[in-house]
Amino acid sequence: MNPDMIYFMKVNAAILFFYAFYRLFFYNDTFFRLRRTTLMGLLLVAVVYPLPDFSGWMKEINTVTEAATVYSTMLPEVIVSAGKTTAAAPEGWLLQSAFLLYLAGVLVLGIRFAVQLGSILILSVQCKTARINGVYVHLLNHPAGPFSFFHLIFIHLPSHTEQEVDEILTHEMTHVRQWHSLDVILSELLCTLFWVNPFVWLLKREVRQNLEYLADQTVLLSGHDRKSYQFHLLGLANQKAAANLYNSFNVLPLKNRIRMMNKKRSHQIGRTKYLLFVPLAALLLMVNNLETVAR
């Protein structure tokens, strides 16, 4: 089997496993900063874990070689031809068609990503700027939901009261200061490369929702009225986003956001469960290299 295909399958399997792990342990707590770090760690480990090779060191450990011997009996047979290892099943036109379909999907999503990025940059040039409450913002010339991308904040002032503008700026400045757009871009790139896996899209949704939880929490901690803020969000619920690449004030479903704003804060002892991610990542590395030893 092609090494690239093996890598692709391992990454997709890890994404599925990590999504189940996240939903089981972290989905309902209120440790949003830890959740952000964990989500980014899950995505990065899923992509990187098949690459490190320390199978040579593992071969020197007797218990590992014994385990590898047992594991080798479960591996599919391979045919060695002309010094290369190939899958027992021949690659026919069906596999080639599937590969071309995959590349087409990557191309389409890549173009979509570039168009969204370009539209934001063009909009930043076209919009006038103003300083509001000490924050530089780009003024939209037509009614649209407020949003941000890295240090760029866009807002249509006539659509909001002074109090609403203050809430929006507090929300969007959280995205700006904490570099939330990096998380958005990473999740978008992984969806582009592994679009055939539905679980990468689900993880992307969790990344985006958690960023909104973080920004909502900052708004409430800054002293804004909870009910007033939630009504403000509901008032913008029908406004659709022009793109998915930026952090939008109102683009995500509000049900979960309002539920999290009203949820009782999780007990601090619950933070310890996030340490489970470390042995999980180590286990994946060990299993991956155990397979190398077995083969």
Q: Describe the strand arrangement of the main beta sheet, using strand numbers.
A: 3-4-6-5-7
Could you tell me the strand content as a percent range? 5-15%
Separation of termini? 12 Å
Cα shape = globular
Order of helix and strand elements from N to C terminus:
HHHHEEHEEEEHHHHEHH
Q: Mind describing the biggest β-sheet?
A: 5 strands, mixed
Q: How many beta-strand elements?
A: 7
Fold and architecture overview:
The protein is α+β, with helices and mostly antiparallel strands and 295 residues long. It folds into two domains: 1-91 and 266-295, no CATH class; 96-263, no CATH class. It is 61% helix and 9% strand. The chain is built from eleven helices and seven strands. It has helices at residues 3-25, 32-48, 55-58, 62-72, 93-126, 162-177, 180-193, 198-221, 226-235, 254-262, 277-294; strands spanning 78-81, 84-87, 128-132, 135-139, 147-149, 152-155, 247-248. The strands form two sheets. Strands 3-4-6-5-7 form a five-stranded mixed sheet, sandwiched between helices. A two-stranded antiparallel sheet has the order 1-2. A hairpin with a 2-residue loop joins strand 1 (78-81) and strand 2 (84-87). Helix 1 (3-25) runs antiparallel to helix 2 and helix 1 crosses helix 8. The radius of gyration is 23 Å and the shape is globular. The two termini are 12 Å apart. The relative contact order is 0.15. The model is unreliable at 78-88 (pLDDT under 50).
